[in-house]
């Protein structure tokens, strides 16, 4: 499910971003510090779920909800309990009182998604490339390369440039399919045709190096997951 966060406090933004990234079937496409920016975004970019703070600059989360036509699922995230009754009158999915745990976060998300889908690996994800968020099929990714302050996502047909670091992709991609084989490379093990102690050869004819520090982990990984 495509979701956004409307939250003006950086610590709360970071917590929600971490929780969302740890939940396979949620895809975070944007974080907004106020509701007016989010409202502009929503006019052209539909989403399935909004994590919404109440105490926001310019316009409160409650007023934003009242003004939002055809609202998606809403999970409120706030430090104030006194808005609970009013929020449920606006048909919010859940009301998370800060600070909340990941377990409590998941309980709220379970109300939006069937339980059985939460643990399924995602088939697609959005990558941030410049000012765009581009949807790609995870299985189409051959490998990801770190390039200074950017990463290159190489798929079967195209190459995408993202500002996200390599460690971000290690966190969001399925761990039983993608592995780091070098300080600069993550590879989709399903694309590997053969490997030696020093290189892996992919089905798209790319040949990638295996870093010395990653050799043992790579071999143990492929044997354990039976991917080759």
Task: Characterize the structure shown.
InterPro entries: CheY-like_superfamily, LytR-like, LytTR_DNA-bd_dom, Sig_transdc_resp-reg_receiver. This is LytTR family two component transcriptional regulator. Residues 2-113 form the Response regulatory domain. The chain has 228 residues and is an alpha/beta fold. It has two domains: 2-112, Rossmann fold (3-Layer(aba) Sandwich); 124-225, OB fold (Dihydrolipoamide Acetyltransferase, E2P) (Beta Barrel). 28% of the residues lie in helices and 32% in strands. It has eight helices and 15 strands. A five-stranded parallel sheet has the order 2-1-3-4-5. Strands 10-9-8-12-11 form a five-stranded antiparallel sheet. Helix 3 (61-67) links the parallel strand 3 (49-52) and strand 4 (73-78). The protein is elongated. 30% of the residues are buried. Residues 115-119 have low confidence and may be disordered.
- Number of helical elements: 8
The number of strands is 15
The major pleated sheet works out as: 5 strands, parallel
What structural category characterises the helix and strand content?
A: alpha/beta
The succession of helices and strands, N to C, reads: EHEHEHEHEHHEEEEEHEEEEEH
Domain HTH LytTR-type: 125-213
Protein name: LytTR family two component transcriptional regulator
Pfam families: LytTR, Response_reg
Keywords: Phosphoprotein
